[in-house]
Amino acid sequence: MSEILLQIDGRKVKVAKEMTILEAAQSAGIVIPTLCHHEKLEPYGACRICTVETEVRGRKNLVVACLYPVQPDLVVRTRSEKIDKIRKMILELMLAHAPDAADLQELAKEYGADKARFEKESSFCILCGLCVRYCAEVKKKNAIAFVDSGARREISFIPEIASKECWNCKECFPLCPTEALQAAFVLTEALISPP
Ligand code: SF4
Ligand code: FES
What we know:
Elements: E1 3-8, E2 11-16, H1 21-27, E3 51-56, E4 59-64, E5 75-77, H2 81-95, H3 102-111, H4 130-138, E6 144-147, E7 154-157, H5 159-165, H6 180-192
Parallel strand pairs: 1-5
Antiparallel strand pairs: 1-2, 3-4, 3-5, 6-7
């Protein structure tokens, strides 16, 4: 396995050349927040909370760490005024969906995000896709999917599949950063259970 050297937050880090910035940071014990990342799933890049600054030969960029591949002599900054501002805004938009979600509240404290900045959205889902992708990629069941588009995009259990597959699984529940998935399932359960 060939390795490359890069710099993260001023530290020289040697990692496998196939890694993303997120994996490189994690291998060095440097924490980058994530909300749509899961090590068993293909990178997705939906939440943008893992945004970091990169610099290559003097050229600076903002990239999502869970997608961006490492390269030799890459300089990465995981915290800066600009990055913190971006993360704060992302969190405030997400908190409008799920103001009481523990994962979001913890990050809100770290980045000074105000959960009341935006009006409450009707859906609790932040569209991280963890539930949908886990069911498709790991469980290979596709019992849950995105429905609708734009502002109405939401997740939904597919009753015909969920009624057979979900009872003994429910592995997606703890993945949900807004804790809303469980409520969605309970609702579906009520719809598909015999009276
Ligand atoms: S229900 Fe939860 S896990 Fe599924 S996409 Fe929405 S926020 Fe993510
Ligand atoms: S964790 Fe990178 S975009 Fe969500």
